[in-house]
């Protein structure tokens, strides 16, 4: 059995599983947000943090639609380094998405049949938050 780990690599900041996409990939309309990107370059290391790093591409299309009352979160600390030092407004959401990827060396590929959080085990939330310098 082969396991694949399609990921954008580890950035110089130490963050991993982040990839820059063009601003046009994110569309916000009222209570709906769509993130759509095609052929985003990533690597397939075939195991988490593995030593093989084949070039690969992924495409995705995810939509979130919020509903219900706004939940307001307020900071419980004045220390800007404290994880509880943030403010935010959030709503529950339903998300749906499709994902696909291809290892450009081995030819391995996958395509999702679609996923949604609109079921008893799913969870999605969307909103805005402020922390650090922006909290003031």
Walk me through the structure.
This protein has 136 residues and is mainly beta. Helix content is 0%, strand content 51%. The chain has strands at residues 6-7, 26-29, 32-44, 54-73, 86-103, 109-111, 115-116, 125-131. Strands 1, 2, 3, 4, 5, 6, 7 and 8 form an 8-stranded antiparallel beta sheet that branches. It is globular, with a radius of gyration of 18 Å. The protein starts with 5 loop residues before the first strand and ends in a 5-residue tail after the last strand.
Essential attributes:
single chain; 136 residues; mainly beta; eight-stranded antiparallel sheet; 0% helix; globular
- Judged by helices, strands and strand pairing, the structural class is mainly beta
- Count of discrete alpha- or pi-helical segments spanning 4 or more residues: 0
Mean residue pLDDT: 82
Shape: globular
Estimate percent helicity: under 10%
Rg from Cα: 18 Å
- The helix-strand sequence is EEEEEEEE
The overall strand count is: 8
Topology record:
Layout: E1 6-7, E2 26-29, E3 32-44, E4 54-73, E5 86-103, E6 109-111, E7 115-116, E8 125-131
Short description:
By secondary structure, the protein is mainly β.
């Amino acid at each position: 059995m082969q396991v694949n780990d399609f990921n954008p690599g580890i950035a110089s900041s130490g963050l991993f599983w982040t990839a820059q996409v063009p601003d046009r990939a994110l569309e916000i309309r009222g209570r709906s947000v769509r993130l759509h990107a095609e052929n985003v370059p990533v690597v397939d290391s075939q195991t988490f943090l593995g030593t093989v790093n084949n070039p690969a591409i992924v495409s995705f299309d995810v939509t979130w639609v919020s509903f219900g009352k706004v939940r307001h979160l307020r900071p419980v600390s004045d220390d800007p380094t404290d994880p509880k030092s943030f403010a935010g407004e959030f709503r529950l959401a339903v998300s749906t998405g499709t994902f696909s990827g291809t290892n450009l060396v081995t030819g391995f590929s996958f395509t999702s049949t679609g996923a949604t959080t609109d079921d008893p085990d799913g969870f999605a939330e969307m909103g805005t938050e402020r922390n650090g310098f922006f909290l003031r």
